[in-house]
Amino acid sequence: MKRYIKIAVLGLLIVHLYGQDGFNCFSIIAGKDCTVDGSVLFGHNEDDGGDQIVNMYKVPRLKHTPDEIITLKNGGKCQQVALTNAYIWLEMPGMEFSDGYLNEHNVVIASDNCPSKEDQPELTDGGIGYWLRRLMAERAASAREAVKIGGQLIEKYGYTASGRTYCIADPHEAWVMCVVNGKHWVAQRVPDDKVMIIPNYYMIQEIDLSDTLNFVGSDDIIEYAISRGWYNPQKDGKFNYREAYGVDWSINHQHNINRQWGGLRLIAKDKFGLNDHFPFAVKPKKKIGLEDVFAVLRDHYEGTEMENENHGKTPHDHDNRPICTLETQYGFVAQLSSGLPREIAGVMWYAPVQPCLHPFVPVYLHTQHFPSTFAYEDYKSGLKLHFYENYDSIRSQLYDHSFQIFARFSLWVNEDYYGRSVEILEQIAKYQLEILDEQEKFRMQLLQKIETDVSNVQNIVTDYSNKNLRLLNSFQLD
């Protein structure tokens, strides 16, 4: 069986024919007071249609000259700072809103598509899009600071896309930052004792900018909505950001409702129906662990009536659009711990392509480099070639790139998911338990090592993280 799968995987051409439909990406955030180990947990599925590549880079801390200028994608200019953070960079060439970051201060950033009503955006020098999250990752020492930096950039340049929710977390707190085309935005802190599910519509509803502990945003966020006719204080009652700025087709679309309900049914203490009002965040039924977040990111409505409504070859191709879809290019769970030494406090649990078909493996933030098959050249080339028009010609040469291997394997399983996945899912469950157990023991060993030989910790976590990634690279049935 092992040899058969290897031949089949390596023999298939990757053909992703799945287009984007506006329902791209999904996130879950658990505050530190409702998790098993007191860490902030941030899970994310990156959904993007078409042929893709995901490169994994470790960018070091970099010094910059006083005259260094960043040229934004649309031509705007931005002064570079003197020192930028080191970070893990999940890069998707050609994609403007798909990269994920975890920086040296354990600040993680990813985003979900959330369309807005804005059709008269104010942009300066072409606006900012791709560079927004990158600059937050490079400059911020906390999630709150990243929100502040992002807000300043939006107010200076204007945001180029229709709308988006940036999910930003560190070991102490998490924020969601909702932006619209142009220069308006608002951010809300996720309560420490609650869990938040983010589909592809704005989740921020009532706001109070005077509560600076939990809210920050454009000073005229309400006045502007009134001026555009999106909010009428006399008729509409309390201001609701989602209702004012979000587009009705996205807010009311069953795909978004299904996905949020799907996550809530696995996590929330209270039971919700599909027609219920979903709050900004919910109390969980129990303390949340890594396995719980993994389960949400792998979900296809198993055990519900919606599971039986699928008539295709795979649960990923589902009329009700599950959380784990054909367009999912990678999933990760950032485990951000405040009670551990900085060298081991940040871990990104990574699963390529559909996360239901691969185990999540731990990658330490302080890993110095990744296996060569996980990236095309180095981080400098990654940035230089990110919007290279002929990247497809490079992609065709990357047959042995790890992501291509993962994608071919996923494609093969999805051709007959119900026939081929049974043994695979059993093996994944087995591997996942072993990896979680090993990671707990490894952390205890690291704590002892830090006390006696902190200088060698980076080498140790690099070897360990790369071993885990190579496990993904060779994953197949025994």
What are its keywords?
478 residues, alpha+beta, Penicillin V Acylase, Chain A, 20% strand, disordered N terminus
Model description:
The protein is of the alpha+beta class and about 475 residues long. The protein has one domain (about 1-475): Penicillin V Acylase, Chain A (4-Layer Sandwich). About 35% of the residues lie in helices and about 20% in strands. The protein has 14 helices and 18 strands. It has an eight-stranded antiparallel beta sheet with strand order 3-8-9-10-11-12-13-15, covered by helices on one side. Strands 14-1-2-16-17-18 form a six-stranded antiparallel beta sheet. The chain has a two-stranded antiparallel ribbon with strand order 4-7. A hairpin with an 8-residue loop joins strand 17 and strand 18 (about 360-365). Helix 1 packs across helix 12 and helix 2 crosses helix 3 (about 145-155). The longest helix has about 35 residues, at about 415-455. The radius of gyration is 22 Å and the shape is globular.
